[in-house]
Structures are given as C-alpha cells and as structure tokens.
Design brief:
Rossmann fold; about 325 residues; about 55% helix; elongated; mainly alpha; binds zinc ion; 15 helices
Length: about 325
C-alpha cells in the first residue's frame, strides 16, 4: 500500500504509510475481539487507536484491561457478517484491500462462514490472521492459510526491553519474566498492572498464617481484596507458578528453578515445615479459586479462604 516503497519495503513516510500506521487507511479493515455480543470492531475503533498508541507489545488481556472489562473476548457472528459485507464492497482508494484479524483463535464455528472468501479472495484482497496459539484455530481455517511462525522473545531480550523502559526494578522484572512464560506482552501486563510484587503478598500471607494472629490475617485479606479482578487472578496464577517451581525443584536435584532468592528461601522453609501432600491440596484449591474468579466470585471471601488454607497447610503439617 506504500506509494514509494524502498527495496520492496514500505517507506513509512508517505501519506499511505502514515495512515496505515494509525489504522485510519480506509482499505485496511480491522477485526479485533469484542466483549459484547452486539459490538463490532467499527464501534470501538477509536478506543483501539488510543490503546495501540505507544504500545509496542500487547495481547488480548491487555486489550481487555484497557477496556476495563472482565467479560469473555469473542469474535462474533456479527463480526463475521461485517467482514463478509465489507469484502463485497469496492476498495475506496481503488487499490488493495487488507483484512486484518487479531485473535483468530476466538473465531468459533461462525468462522466457517469466511472459508470461501479466504480460499479464493478476489484480486488485490488479502487476509492477515494473527493468533497466539495456532492449535486453537479452527482446522478448516488454518488449512487454508500460509503460516508464518514468530518465536517468542528470549528472557534476556524481554528483560532488556523492560529495563530500558523502566517498567520495574530488576527483581520485579525477573519475577514478571518468570511468570510471563516467554510472552513479552504478558510480562508487560504483569509489570504495569500491579503495585507490589506478588511474591511479597504470598510470603507475607504464609508468614501471617504461621503466626496465626487473627487480626493480622484479616489485615492481609483487606489488602489482597483491593487487587482488581485481573490482578487477583494473576496473584492466584503466581501462586501456582511458585508451588510448581518449588515442588519441581524439591524433587529433581538438577532442576533449575525459576524463583527469586527470597522465594527460594520460602520454598526451602515450606518443605522443611510442611507435608508434601498438603501442598498438592492447596494447589488444587488455588486452581479452583481461579475458576471461581473467572465467574466473578467475591474477592474478600476468596482472600479469606486463601489465608485459612495457608493456615491449614501449616497446621496439618
Ligand atoms: Zn510509504
């Protein structure tokens, strides 16, 4: 679409390039996940433009955070209809038309309505599908696409990026990288959406439960319930990560744990004082709480359950 390409690459300076860069080129048709059944991308395009401004890396969670929603993301039947309708229109500028679909995994069976146009698009029409996990794409769609795999960034690359942008101190960044599992956008989400380290929350919770002072335990609950829903889920997921690494490290001598030094201390303490089987029970509970949080459970009740679980873990052992 560039009007003055250089060596087959866009110049990034011409009018077309600038418009594309801001997602305002009329023949670039964007489809992104929406969160209400009647919503189509066109309704929230202005929100999208604000969202991507200055955002180098993001994923569908970041988009939900930006919109402040906890609903399930979706690419609905209505969105597919909109793609089909737009497909049948002539291009505004008389050149190429590009359809850009972000979150291909979210196309459920309605996605099959697109098969015909994907398979044999009219001249000068292109479809670009972006996905994070191609195993989750409808096989009928996947088999009609040329696939380009983009490998995850290395831990060092992610750490460099985050420290250059001062997204946290080196411990915070390391913890987020451990949790992010190779996804730079997830690491950024973790660093920008929480005020304190999750490890501090967990360790202070375990310590408080160990001391067994009811008042202090309630203070901990008050603190934890202030996390918003997304952060609360991240805190629960963090605990799964912590226990997984601690258990694996305890069982396999040569296992390299993805834990910070303070977490390693806590893990050592835990296995000196707590029975193995009880840890598994706690992990099961936490897994169950994540499910409840996804169905909008009450944070205060869950936080209370959580610290009582820590207490039980220590007491039973
Ligand atoms: Zn250009």
């Amino acid at each position: 679409m560039c009007s003055t390409p250089e060596n087959g690459r866009p110049c990034l300076r011409c009018k077309n390039c600038k418009r594309l860069n801001h997602w305002i080129y009329p023949d670039l048709h964007l489809t992104v996940p929406t969160y209400e059944s009647n919503q189509i991308t066109k309704n929230i395009l202005s929100e999208w433009r604000i969202f991507i401004e200055g955002n180098d890396y993001f994923n569908i969670n970041s988009w939900a955070n930006h919109l402040g929603t906890t609903s399930k993301p979706n690419i609905t039947k209505k969105q597919c209809d909109d793609i089909l309708q737009t497909y049948n229109l002539k291009s505004y500028e008389g050149g190429k038309k590009i359809f850009f679909i972000w979150g291909t995994e979210l196309l459920e069976k309605e996605g099959n309505r697109l098969l015909k146009i994907i398979e044999e698009p009219t001249d000068d029409t292109y479809f670009i599908f972006i996905a994070y996990n191609k195993n989750q794409i409808l096989p009928t769609i996947l088999s009609r696409l040329q696939q380009i795999d983009i490998p995850p960034a290395s831990d060092t690359e992610i750490m460099d990026y985050c420290s250059q942008r001062e997204l946290g101190d080196s411990n915070e960044i390391k913890e987020a990288v451990n949790l992010g599992d190779g996804s730079i956008s997830e690491v950024i989400n973790i660093l920008t959406s929480k005020e304190h380290l999750f490890s501090e929350y967990l360790l202070s919770g375990l310590r408080t439960a160990y001391q067994g002072n009811g008042l202090e335990m309630m203070k901990w609950v008050e603190n934890i319930q202030k996390l918003n829903t997304g952060q609360f889920i991240q805190f629960l997921q963090y605990q799964l990560h912590f226990f997984r690494e601690a258990i694996a490290g305890h069982n396999q001598r040569n296992y390299i744990k993805r834990l910070l030094r303070s977490e390693q201390k806590a893990a050592n303490w835990l296995f000196n004082n707590v029975r193995f089987l009880e840890v598994f029970r706690l992990v099961e509970q936490i897994d169950h709480y994540i499910g409840s949080m996804n169905q909008n459970a009450n944070k205060k009740i869950l936080a209370t359950n959580l610290i009582l679980d820590y207490k039980k873990l220590i007491k039973r052992s």
